[in-house]
Amino acid sequence: MPSRSVPNPISASSRCAGLVLAAGASERMGSPKALLQTPDGIPLAKAQADLLSRAGCDPVTVVIGADAARIREEVMGCPFTVHEGWRAGRVSSLQAGLRALPPSDAYVILPVDAVGIAQQTVESLLCLGASSRAQAIRPSYRERAGHLLWISAATADEILHLMPAPETRLNAWIDPKCMWVEMEDPALLHNLNTPDDWAGVYG
């Protein structure tokens, strides 16, 4: 997997919107991941949306599907996009988020369960995207693919034309397009699906 080092953060001149994907049923977690409380007592959906906003993404939306009414009731001050067709899989949720946002030069995609990623990591990704002609950028940690993703407007348009189905695997489709970027942030590998996963990070 080819990789490169990240330059020092610079001021990004292009517009980059942010999406937090939180539409799944969270069956293995046993409760909606969007409602998990961070150590600061903030619902995870809001914490992830705030992270993208602080890093420079504007606007930001959180795509929810399963338990949407409960999540919207319990999480205040968070920009939500409700995706009724969430059972069609992650690609369909991403498409719903892209359609809900105004056109942008680029987009950063953050799964709600990829917790603990540093703000500086997201800022570096935005700056690198603004200064490159990449179709997509995936940060890695020690040559392992992370779960944070930057995509260009052209790639976003391609995603909107994919067949939304559970068997459509976003990573398999997009990874050949990606520029891989090595970053010193182990949280890029976080993918918390069970209470034990959560306890391993925040327990």
Q: What would you say about this model in short?
A:
With 203 residues, this protein is α/β, with parallel strands linked by helices. The protein has seven helices and nine strands; from the N terminus they run E-E-H-E-H-E-H-E-H-E-E-E-H-H-E-H.
CATH superfamily heading: Spore Coat Polysaccharide Biosynthesis Protein SpsA, Chain A
Percentage of residues in helical conformation:
25-40%
Q: How many domain units? A: 1
pLDDT average, as an integer? 92
Radius of gyration: 16 Å
What's the helix-strand series? EEHEHEHEHEEEHHEH
Strand content: 15-25%
CATH class: Alpha Beta
**What's the total helix number?**
7
Overall strand count = 9
* Alpha-carbon distance between the two ends: 33 Å
Structural class: alpha/beta
Major beta sheet summary: 9 strands, mixed
Word description of this protein:
The chain has 203 residues and is α/β, with parallel strands linked by helices. 31% of the residues lie in helices and 20% in strands. It has a single domain, classed as Spore Coat Polysaccharide Biosynthesis Protein SpsA, Chain A (Alpha-Beta Complex). Strands 1, 2, 3, 4, 5, 6, 7, 8 and 9 form a 9-stranded mixed β-sheet that branches. Strand 3, helix 2 and strand 4 form a beta-alpha-beta unit. Helix 1 packs across helix 4. It is globular and about 40 Å long.
